[in-house]
TrEMBL record:
This is DEBR0S1_27292g1_1. Transmembrane segments: none annotated. The lineage of its organism: Eukaryota, Fungi, Dikarya, Ascomycota, Saccharomycotina. InterPro entries: HAD-like_hydrolase_phosphatase (IPR050849), HAD-like_sf (IPR036412), HAD_hydro_PyrdxlP_Pase-like (IPR006384), HAD_sf (IPR023214). GO terms for molecular function: phosphatase activity. Keywords: Hydrolase.
Length: 236
């Protein structure tokens, strides 16, 4: 039997959306092949000349080639990556209004879990469901590790698949679907939500303008909370 759904569900990207800096970009810039090469790879992905899957793997490979373990990466990120200042209050608002909150990420679970627990604490962390890629490390060599993609698609993690699988659990009362993102990995998710939030000044805004995809621009999660609250009031 399918469950009756909540009135709304929020799905959000992690890197560059919940976090103010993209942790994978930061690792590549500081521990991998550097900013210039990373921007070249990102431009190829944005122009659809290189899949996100292959470009991201190339970025991570440059980090392991420089002999940095996954633990090294997490240690660096905990010191340098910051959470959107409005996210904690947004999470509390979602919880008080019975709105499920999912992180749908093309990043890696070990990194997301470490950052989330460090900044949010276990109580807040437990409210968020994380659907992301994983990572595996060679048990004989900690410097040999790689991403484990969720699926076979060019995205590595087709976010629309994850979102639609969750939504399929609800039968007659389909919830209002909100998605928050910033970049190339959010393109598939942008097509299966009712309202898309795109971080100001980032690649998702560029893509949406190019493809005439409607979106709400945001600077912090305070903007998102305000817009969702207004939207839900209009529906009641």
């Amino acid at each position: 039997m399918k469950a009756q759904g909540p009135k709304a569900i929020v799905f959000t990207d992690w890197d560059g959306t919940v976090t103010l800096q993209d942790s994978n970009d930061y690792m590549t810039d500081t521990l991998g092949f550097g900013l210039k090469k990373r921007k070249d790879v990102a431009q190829l992905m944005l122009n659809e000349k290189l899949s996100f899957r292959d470009g991201f793997r190339e970025m991570l490979q440059s980090i392991t080639d420089n002999h940095h373990s996954l633990e090294d990466c997490i240690e660096v990120l905990l010191k340098n990556i910051h959470i959107d200042p409005g996210f904690k209050s947004f999470l509390e608002w979602c919880r008080s209004n019975n709105i499920p909150l999912y992180v749908i990420s093309s990043g890696m679970k070990p990194i997301i879990n470490a950052l989330l627990k460090n900044y949010m604490g276990e109580k807040d962390e437990s409210y968020i469901s994380i659907i992301a890629n994983d990572a595996k490390t060679d048990p004989n060599d900690k410097y040999k590790w790689e991403i484990v993609y969720r699926d076979e698609t060019p995205f590595g993690h087709d976010k629309s698949r994850s979102i639609n699988k969750i939504l399929s659990c609800y039968k007659e009362s389909k919830p209002m679907v909100f998605y928050c993102g910033d970049g190339i990995s959010d393109l598939s998710a942008s097509k299966c939500c009712d309202v898309l939030f795109a971080r100001s000044g980032e690649n998702l805004v560029t893509y949406c303008n190019r493809q005439n995809i409607p979106y709400e621009e945001f600077s912090t999660f305070n903007d998102i909370k305000k817009k969702i609250s207004e939207t839900m009031e209009e529906l009641n």
